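Pasting as-is:
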Amino acid sequence: MSTISDRILDRIDFSSIFSQLRKVNARKVGVQLPDGLKFYAAELTEIFEKEGFEVIVSGKGSYGACDMDLELLDHCDYLLHFAHTPILRIDRVIYVPYQVDYPLEPFYQVKIPEKSIALIATAQYAWKLQEVKAVLEKKGYEVELKTGKELKYPGEVLGCNYTALQDVKADAVLFVGDGLFHPIGAAIYTGKKVYRLSPLSNEFEEVNVERFIRKRMAAIVKAMDGRKCGIIVSTKPGQKRERLALELKRRAKEKGLSCFVILTDEISAEKIYNFRADFLVNTACPRISYDDAEAFHVPVLTPQEFQIVLGERSFEDYAMDEIFRFRSPSPSTP
């Protein structure tokens, strides 16, 4: 009888990993896991050790494909980054996808009033969207399924990359997966009605963005009263936007604000607390602004929200932060 760990680890293609490591004569491997897979670090280590590999597991967080523990490469031959699809091309790093298998039956039952739908999901669910598309088309829906910039699977979205929905023609969007963060982002990005279906729990709902927008607008309005701001830059390879931070600082100083740049790896309320600022601008992972804002003692804005404070963008033109656009040069239009 299989255990929970067996069922979880069965979703990983170990034979492919072993083959890739042996081709490059790697013997000592670093393993970076998201929180959900850290429970199985011992089992993963045993699997690799049985194949003759020595393993070091990263103790750092892994919050996305952009969150790479490159320090681990100083201690091993290769780094295995689990559960995300590639968005960075870094020497001696192998991305190891983690796919959630899920039933198609809920899609036969789903009822969406709009007859043209765009499909999206996070990487763990997106690998199966072609099959979902076929089911919905059998039900008479017209389905859009496009691959976003820098992303692997058709329909795949990140919290900072919704280009799978760029120029979408469908009347509505169906997000496949868990949580509300990504479907809320999709609703703001497209301005269209978004539905969420979790095929594992069979939860189905229309996504409401009003509460999210109210909270973000309140943070922006509070920041408008401030005169001193700290601009946060992450050292994480997929999140570092130093040029954008310096450009925002320049613009802010032109408007009479006092600004300073904070460079850090992990960003938390505790680490930032002793900096005296009326508000913060976060150029790292947007989820810090959206999901963790209440933990901070001052408002934490995205670059686009900071543009509203500076008078460069209207409230009506509110936009999500697409971090992938500014890992390389020109920060002129966040």
